[in-house]
Design brief:
The protein is of the alpha/beta class and 249 residues long. The chain contains eleven helices and eight strands. It binds glyceraldehyde-3-phosphate. Its EC number is 5.3.1.1.
């Protein structure tokens, strides 16, 4: 939390929850204190209309977890940015490591997705982060720079949030130490200053993601270059409201 940037917390529900559980979670979210924190939650596509109809907009907005690199057309199984906009959705998560790993989305495709989504007026949480062996062999920033270089000129602080998610920390309980998270996010901001501009770097929000929970969030939220969180597992539980609270001061 630093530089006058507004904190933003995302709840990425991934491919989880049936309708009844998603509805119960919305009920909890409707009671949370958000203060000055911006909150978005990303249900599975099929649940988005229900969540949009029941989630109070002064608590959280709804995000999609992905969208196509194309517009509408003959692309079986895909969902375009135009569909999201038509549904009143304002946010989309792009480049999550699970999309990179299981669906083979590479930097080139993700740059196309980002460009297309932004051109249709969506706001984007754009995910980057290194694998375990890359952390161990000291190439974390090489990886993050490579993931950012093709999109650096598209980084508008009004419409893009970066989510730094070390892959080894996702769903493992191995949260990055405050030093690892702060040092990496500071370096990411320095890279953005050189690849985009110092003004963009100062204003763009960088979330941390990877095993954030109700207990470790406060220490991480206090760090200069952490502007919120992208939360997976804990976003499905009541403790998500504690994470938002830690970012709401
Ligand atoms: O999008 C969220 C991240 O993948 C973090 O997931 P996690 O909080 O379950 O580690």
């Amino acid at each position: 939390m630093g530089g006058g940037r507004k904190m933003i917390v995302g709840g990425n529900w991934k491919c989880n929850l049936d309708q009844a559980k998603a509805a119960a979670l919305v009920e909890q979210l409707n009671g949370m204190e958000v203060g000055n924190c911006e909150v978005v939650v990303a249900p599975v596509f099929l649940h988005i209309p229900m969540v949009m109809n029941t989630l109070k907009k002064d608590k959280a907005l709804v995000s999609a977890q992905n969208c196509s690199f194309t517009g509408m057309g003959a692309y079986t199984g895909d969902i375009s940015a135009e569909h999201l906009v038509d549904m009143g959705i304002q946010w989309v998560i792009l480049g999550h490591s699970e999309r990179r790993q299981y669906f083979k989305e590479d930097d080139e495709m993700l740059a196309k997705k980002l460009e297309y989504a932004l051109s249709k007026g969506l706001k984007v949480i754009y995910c980057i982060g290194e694998q375990k062996e890359q952390r161990e062999n000291g190439t974390t920033m090489d990886v993050c720079k490579k993931q950012l270089e093709g999109v650096a000129k598209m980084l508008n602080p009004e419409t893009v949030v970066i989510a730094y998610e070390p892959v080894w920390a996702i769903g493992t309980g191995l949260v990055a130490t405050p030093e690892q998270a702060q040092d990496t996010q500071k370096s990411i901001r320095e890279y953005i200053a050189s690849a985009a501009s110092p003004d963009v770097a100062a204003k763009i929000r960088i979330q941390y993601g990877g095993s954030v929970n109700g207990k470790n969030c406060a220490e991480l939220a206090a760090l200069e270059d952490i502007d919120g969180f992208l939360v997976g597992g804990a976003s499905l539980k009541p403790e998500f409201t504690d994470i938002v609270k830690a970012c709401s001061a």
